[in-house]
Amino acid sequence: MRNIPPVMRMVWECGPKTVIWSMALRVALALMPVAILEVSRWLINAIVMVRHQHTALPQFFWWIVVLEFALASLAALLSRGVGFCDSLLGDLYLQHISVRVIEHASKLDITAFENPDFYDRLERAKAQATDRIAMIQMVGTLIQLVLTTISLSLLIAKYSPWLLLLLIVGTIPALLGESHFAFLGYAKNFMQTPLRRKMDYLRDLGGSKEAAKELKLFGLRDFLIESFSGMANTIFDQNVDLSKRKLAAGTFLSLLATAGYYSAYALVLWDTIRGRFEIAVLVILTTAILQVSANLQQIFVNASGVADQALFLTDLLGFFAMEPAVRSKPNAIKIPRPIRQGVEFRNVSFAYPGTTRLVLKDFNFRLRPGERVALIGENGQGKTTIVKLITRLYDPTDGQILIDGVDLRDYDMEDLCHEIGVIFQDFMRYEMTARDNIAVGRIEERDRLDRIEAAAQMSLADEVIGRLSGGIEQQLGRRFEGGVDLSGGEWQRMALARAYLRDAQLLILDEPTAALDARSEQEVFQRFAELTKGKMALLISHRFSTVKMTDRIVVLSHGVLTEEGTHEELIRHGGLYAEMFEMQAASYR
Ligand SMILES: Nc1ncnc2c1ncn2[C@@H]1O[C@H](COP(=O)(O)OP(=O)(O)O)[C@@H](O)[C@H]1O
Ligand SMILES: [Mg+2]
Question: Is the omega angle on the peptide bond into residue 330 within 30 degrees of 0, that is, cis?
Fold first, then answer.
């Protein structure tokens, strides 16, 4: 229940006016049954008088009948209004929560996404964002039910408090039962999450474009289906087990509640026979008892439903409560423009969170303004890690990274991102238009077609775009209708255009040409070398032909800088670089 207030706050935030309307209508609706019963009592009393004491029918008798009709019509109208408000709120809430989930996920550290616990939580939060709309209606209905029940209970208590007590006592076991099962249901779902994630993965894998080739060639279809079915059956069995237990216990408990109702009913009949109650009272009491008894059960079903839903929101709220660890300081400063001393790694050591192995050990490196440096090293030596550190996707475990002598952590994160243009090895292929694929590099300029086209020209993506039937507005990727897929090298040119669109002081390309053929690479790099003249650029590549175009080459091995210099110097030095170069050259001969 602790989760309900924050959720209600979110509901309130997404549409205060609608909430007020919905509540006002519900309060009015809640009081209708009592009002109608009171009118009925008056009518029955009048009839009894006419029949037994032979008095004349009261003048305004038929007007009272009309009044009852008006009340009943009003109730129907109110309930329509409530339905309307609820559907509005549902939509508003869904939108509000979805936006908040996207917003919040983008604020969190990259680290979080590598943590399976976080991933489970995010998955559950995403599901909860869409699944839990029913809760809003349930809370509204609950409030309405409670108000109706209180008003009817007051009516009953006016004639006989014992009756009320009997009704309530009969319903309590049902309440406890319901909440018990709500809890079990949550525990079950919580436990099943890892399994569900695996199933989701298998399902995605089975339907993914990337995997299709291998799945077919390796004949993995049956294996996938079997694994999936095995997991699905486990979940099914657990669900059935709980449902069975709930069925048995629930039936027993609602029988108990029905027994409570009939005892009260018998009591009223008895009191009427003894002459304690008039006929009119008998009629309205039996009606009221029936309604209260039904309402009490409904309240419990609803309350446990709400509790059930609220429990599920633990993850959504927990997700919203997560705070990023890497963030701007309160008085963060802007990156100097231009950067005068460059970027420096000073005794930087780094181990990925949750691991102890140091990927970088006491690493020292300096990138001077206007300098284009190639960073090379074998796979897994920490090259990409260096890029992640410069962009503050992670902070160093030890040591400092400085821009113009000031620690990166003192700079404003947003500004830092602005000044660095990175194309990662595993860059994104957005299932959007060619134009948007480039525009994401500087989304503020999405409307500046001239700049986007210029960037495309710089990265040679314009050649790719020229071949597309839809030109720059061509949808890319295969996911959506009319989309055209590109080759790895073509995608890479699109990604490069993004980096060019950014007016960044430091450009970083992490093995950007792995998918380009030798001639394209030569072209792309020739351009890169020209275009980045006077800018800081860090280039990570395996191809020596491109590496040679930079001003300086540094070699990373086992987390430390082992060699640096120009191509000629390093060849003369005869170290790791010379060896790697010789190996590559030999393979070409
Ligand atoms: N998110 C991560 N968590 C833990 N270890 C990682 C992570 N990313 C990379 N590593 C490890 O850090 C080392 C360096 O990786 P990386 O910087 O990607 O190498 P490179 O780009 O030079 O090929 C590798 O041994 C890799 O296994
Ligand atoms: Mg890498």
Answer: no
| 529 CB-contact burial (10 Å; exposed 0-12 / middle 13-18 / buried 19+) | middle
Ligand 1 probe mutation, 352, 365, 542, 554, most atoms within 8 A of CB? 352
Task: Pick the ligand that lies closest to the CA of residue 557.
Answer: 1
Ligand in closest contact with the CA of 509? 2
Could you tell me the pTM of the whole model?
0.70
CA 245 to ligand 2 center in whole angstroms: 53
Q: Which residue type sits at 96?
A: H
**R_g over Cα of the chain:** 36
**Does ligand 1 lie within 6 Å of residue 381's CB atom?**
yes
Report which of 473, 465, 468, 474 is spatially closest to residue 493, judged by C-alpha positions. Answer: 465
Ligand 1 atom nearest to CA at 381? 22
Beta bridge partners of 565: 553
pLDDT by 10s per residue, the chain, length 589: 677 888 888 888 888 999 999 999 999 999 999 999 999 999 998 998 888 888 888 888 999 999 999 999 999 999 999 999 988 988 888 888 888 888 888 888 777 776 677 777 777 777 766 666 677 788 889 999 999 999 999 999 998 888 888 888 887 887 788 778 877 887 888 788 788 878 888 888 888 877 888 888 888 888 999 999 999 999 999 999 999 999 999 888 888 888 888 888 898 999 999 988 888 899 998 899 888 888 887 887 788 778 767 766 777 888 888 887 777 788 889 999 889 999 999 999 999 988 899 999 999 999 999 899 999 988 889 999 999 999 888 899 999 999 999 999 999 988 888 888 888 877 888 989 999 999 988 888 889 999 999 999 988 899 999 999 999 999 998 888 888 999 888 888 898 898 888 878 898 888 866 666 777 777 777 777 777 777 899 988 877 777 888 889 999 988 889 999 998 898 898 888 888 888 877 776 6
Q: Which of 363, 385, 422 to mutate to test the pocket of ligand 1 (most atoms within 8 A of CB)?
A: 385
User: Was domain 343-588 assigned CATH 3.40.50.300?
Assistant: yes
Nearest to 314 by CA among 144, 181, 94, 135: 135
**Per residue in 158-175, is it b (16+ CB within 10 Å) or e — as a string?**
ebbeebbebbbebbebbb
Ligand 2 centroid from CA 48, angstroms: 92
What does the alpha-carbon distance between residue 114 and residue 127 come to, in Å, rounded to a whole number? Answer: 20
Is 437 within 8 Å of 490 (Cβ atoms)? Answer: no
| Domain boundaries, given as residue ranges, for the chain | 4-321, 343-588
Q: Is the CB of 530 under 6 A from ligand 1?
A: no
Q: Which ligand is nearest to the CA of 378?
A: 1
Upper half-sphere CA count for residue 550 (Cβ side, 13 Å): 30
- Measure the CA–CA gap between 541 and 547, rounded to whole angstroms: 7
> What residues have CB less than 8 Å from 416, skipping those under 6 apart?
335, 391, 392, 408
CATH 3.10.20.520 fits 4-321, yes or no: no
Element (H, E) at 537: strand 536-540
Distance from C-alpha of 206 to C-alpha of 221, rounded to nearest angstrom: 8
